[in-house]
């Protein structure tokens, strides 16, 4: 029955889009996209996709988003300047939807192997953690460990076990813009407040030769002026030939796009980063870098690059060569190896505050519900609720479990609250003591401790 509904949806979409020119993608002529002169590939379509959503009133304007985000980024920067000793690594639960049409599992076709999917997760963790001894490491003084790690979901939306790889036969050979947005994503997405959705498919039609694109984050819609928008399309979608790394798994890849950096680039967008040249030809620099990527520590440049064979300097009146090695440029995969400190600030601000981003950091779907956590404490022995927190955070322990104390840390690892647990009143924490954002609480018992992540709205 479900497959029949999917087939009908595909037929209807095909009828509606019949005759649609493949020269247009997200309302823009493909000849006007940034196209790699060597390979003919379009590295990214996120900016064009975002502008189309804005035109269709499905996304707030750039100005609205940046005005909302700016004070939150500044708050993060101030905390970073305090050189906090303790750090909190944020974990993002991932589901990878492998979309195929009945092909056998293979790395020469769209139904890629589990090993190839896992190679991509390995690359993401190396890149976002600036991991020493890997291609994701750099010795640039402004290079940042974003302190984000990605884990494959272990619990599916119905509560059953999963390895985080969702293979779906949708009975379609190629995927164009209309089919992806109206069929593929809405019919396969897992709850985007609990899972970061990545789709892997074979693009075709107007998406032919595109490597991938992401849904940009949005503000919390304060004062009801805009958003938050419901979304059945939130996540990142990538052509299978740009997914995974041949450093670990062989198979078919696009030329020069074989180290997994398309996913790093697109997830950068999903977490609030813009292309470092600002998608314009200006060399104007101001204190907030609002003419470019809102990250003053990325040197000014007025165009994208596709390699790092030489040192480019497209804005010679400003300090520094173009940062071709930045993950948010268009360089080939072997070039890329840096996020900057200012880019980290933006990412953390988004993860703490943006709808469907902030809740990811407190999701528990990467945990085996029957596993033992930390120092011998079972997962259901201690719990916290509600999450997100609106007024109070409550700590609950099963009968017979003696709680000793707790400590609360913010997203940058600062201890913001600690307390001895002497009575029931100590099990209730007012949001007034914490403020808003992402937090971690460690609850100690006579036997050990347990860690939880939560959001205060």
Put the structure in a nutshell.
This protein is of the alpha/beta class.
Task: Give an overview in words.
The chain has 457 residues and is α/β, with parallel strands linked by helices. The chain folds into 2 domains: 2-359, 3-Layer(aba) Sandwich (Collagenase (Catalytic Domain)); 374-456, Sandwich (Immunoglobulin-like). Helices cover 21% and strands 19% of the residues. The strands form 5 sheets. Strands 3, 4, 5, 6, 7 and 8 form a 6-stranded mixed beta sheet that branches. The chain has a 4-stranded antiparallel beta sheet with strand order 14-13-16-17. A 3-stranded antiparallel beta sheet has the order 11-12-15, with no helix packed on it. A hairpin with a 6-residue loop joins strand 11 and strand 12 (392-397). Helix 1 packs antiparallel against helix 5 and helix 3 crosses helix 7 (341-353). The longest helix has 20 residues, at 62-81.
Q: State Rg.
A: 22 Å
Largest sheet: 6 strands, mixed
Distance between the termini: 40 Å
How many structurally independent domains? 2
Mean pLDDT: 89
Structural class: alpha/beta
Task: Please name the CATH topology of the largest domain.
Answer: Collagenase (Catalytic Domain)
Task: Count every beta strand, where a strand is a DSSP E run of 2 or more residues.
Answer: 17
Organism: Chryseobacterium aquaticum
Family: Belongs to the peptidase M43B family.
Keywords: Disulfide bond, Hydrolase, Metal-binding, Metalloprotease, Protease, Signal, Zinc
Domain Peptidase M43 pregnancy-associated plasma-A: 188-351
């Amino acid at each position: 029955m479900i497959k029949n509904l999917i087939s009908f949806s595909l037929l209807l979409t095909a009828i509606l889009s019949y005759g649609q020119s493949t020269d247009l993608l997200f309302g823009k002529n493909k000849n006007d996209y940034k196209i790699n002169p060597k390979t003919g590939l379009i590295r990214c379509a996120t900016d064009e996709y975002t502008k189309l959503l804005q035109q269709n009133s499905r996304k707030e304007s750039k100005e609205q988003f940046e005005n909302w985000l700016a004070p939150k980024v500044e708050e993060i920067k101030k905390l970073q300047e305090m050189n906090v000793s303790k750090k909190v690594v944020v974990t993002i639960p991932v589901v990878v939807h492998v979309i195929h049409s009945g092909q056998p599992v293979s790395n020469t076709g769209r139904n890629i192997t589990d090993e190839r999917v896992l190679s991509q997760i390995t690359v993401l963790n190396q890149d976002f953690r600036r991991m020493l001894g890997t291609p994701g490491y750099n010795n640039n003084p402004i290079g940042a460990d974003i302190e984000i790690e990605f884990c494959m979901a272990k619990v599916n939306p119905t509560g059953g076990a999963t390895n985080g790889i969702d293979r779906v036969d949708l009975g379609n050979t190629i995927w164009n813009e209309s089919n992806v947005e109206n069929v593929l994503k809405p019919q396969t997405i897992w709850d985007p407040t609990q899972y970061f959705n990545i789709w892997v498919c074979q693009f075709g039609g107007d998406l032919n030769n595109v490597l991938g694109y992401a849904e940009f984050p949005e503000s919390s819609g304060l004062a009801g002026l805009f958003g938050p928008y419901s979304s059945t399309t939130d996540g990142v979608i990538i052509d299978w030939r740009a997914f995974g790394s041949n450093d670990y798994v062989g198979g078919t890849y696009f030329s020069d796009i074989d180290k997994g950096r398309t996913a790093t680039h697109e997830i950068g967008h999903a977490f609030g980063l813009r292309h470092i040249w600002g998608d314009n030809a200006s060399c104007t620099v101001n204190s907030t870098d609002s003419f470019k990527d809102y990250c003053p520590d990325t040197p000014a440049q007025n165009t994208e690059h596709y390699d790092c064979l030489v040192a480019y300097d497209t804005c010679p009146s400003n300090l520094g060569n173009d940062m071709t090695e930045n993950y948010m440029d268009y360089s080939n995969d072997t070039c890329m190896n840096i996020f900057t400190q200012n880019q980290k600030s933006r990412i953390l601000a988004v993860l703490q505050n943006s709808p469907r981003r902030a809740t990811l950091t407190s999701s528990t779907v990467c945990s085996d519900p029957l596993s033992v956590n930390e120092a011998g404490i079972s997962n259901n022995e201690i719990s916290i609720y509600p999450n997100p927190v609106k007024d109070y955070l409550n700590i609950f322990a099963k009968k017979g479990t003696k709680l000793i104390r707790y400590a609360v840390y913010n997203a940058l690892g600062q201890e913001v609250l600690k307390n001895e647990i002497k009575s029931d009143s100590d099990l209730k924490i007012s949001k007034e003591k914490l403020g808003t954002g992402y937090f971690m609480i460690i609850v100690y018992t006579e036997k050990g401790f347990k860690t939880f992540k939560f959001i205060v709205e």
